[in-house]
Amino acid sequence: MKVLVATQKPFAAAAVAGIKKIVEEAGHTLALLEKYADQADLEAAVADADALIVRSDKVTAQVVAAAKNLKIVVRAGAGYDNLDLEACTAAKVVAMNTPGQNANAVAELAIAMMIYMSRNQFTPGTGCEVQGKKVGIQAYGNVGRLVAQKAKALGMEVMAFDPFVPAEKMVAEGVTPASSLEDMYKACNFVSLHIPAIPATIGSIGANLLKLLPKGGCLVNTARKEVINEPELAAILAEREDLKYITDVAASNQAELDEKFGKRVFATPKKMGAETAEANINAGLAAANQICDFFATGCTRFQLNK
User: Which region holds residue 195: left if phi is over 0, alpha if psi is between -120 and 50, else beta?
Assistant: First the structure.
C-alpha cells in the first residue's frame, strides 16, 4: 500500500524518519509531499495513495474525489475540522485522528497562557499569582484532564463542565463538576476552552457566557477560533474593561481587538498548541501505526466517520 504524508507544515525530521520506519517495516511504501503551494498539488499527489497522513492540511471533497485508491486518512492531531467527513463517508474512506498525542503540549500552553496574562504579559507592573485562583475547564477530555492536573499542582481550584463525562469521575480526580456552563463561568477566574469546532459549538462562546465571568476574569482559548462569537467578544471586552482574552488561534478581528484592548488581549503569532518536538513526533508515529494496524487487522478504533 502507498502511504502519503502530505504536510504544508512538515513534520520534524525525526518524525518523518519514524513514520518511514513504521510504514516500511509493515511492508508499505511511503511518499512525501511537503511545503506544497496549492491544493492542486495535494490532489495530484493523492491520486494513487491508499492512505493519507495530514496535519492541518485540508482534506476537502475535491481531495477525496481525486484519491481513487484512498482507504484511510489520519489527521495527526486531535482536532479534525480540516477533514470533510461527509465526503470521506461517501467515498468509503475511514477518517481518523490521533487523540491524546498533542494533549500535554496543549495543556502546558494553556497553563502558560494563564500565567502570562496574570503577569501582565511580562511587562512592568504588579500582576497576580495563579495560586488560589479558580479555573473552569470546558470539555474534560485528554487536554482538559491534563490542564486540571497541572492547575492543581500550582494550587489552583478546578471546575469542569462536560456533559459526556460522569461527575463521579471528575470528583475522583479532585475536580468540581459544574452543573451548567453558566455556573462555571460565574465561579471561575479563568475559563480554558477545549471544545471542538462542530455545528453545536461554533459561535457558542459569546456575551451570554463572558458577561458572567467575575472581575478580572480571563478566557483562554487553545481550541479553535470558530467556537468564539467574535463580534460579541469585542462588545463584551468594551463593556467590561476588566476582562481578558488570550488565544492560540488569532480571531478574524484580532487586529481590531489588539488596537482597542491592548494588553487585555493576546494571540500567538501562529497556532502553538502542538508545536513541541514531542507532540510532533508522537502524533506522526501514532498516525503511521494506526494506518498499519488498519491494513493489518482492520482496526478502526479512532474512526471519526462511523
Answer: beta
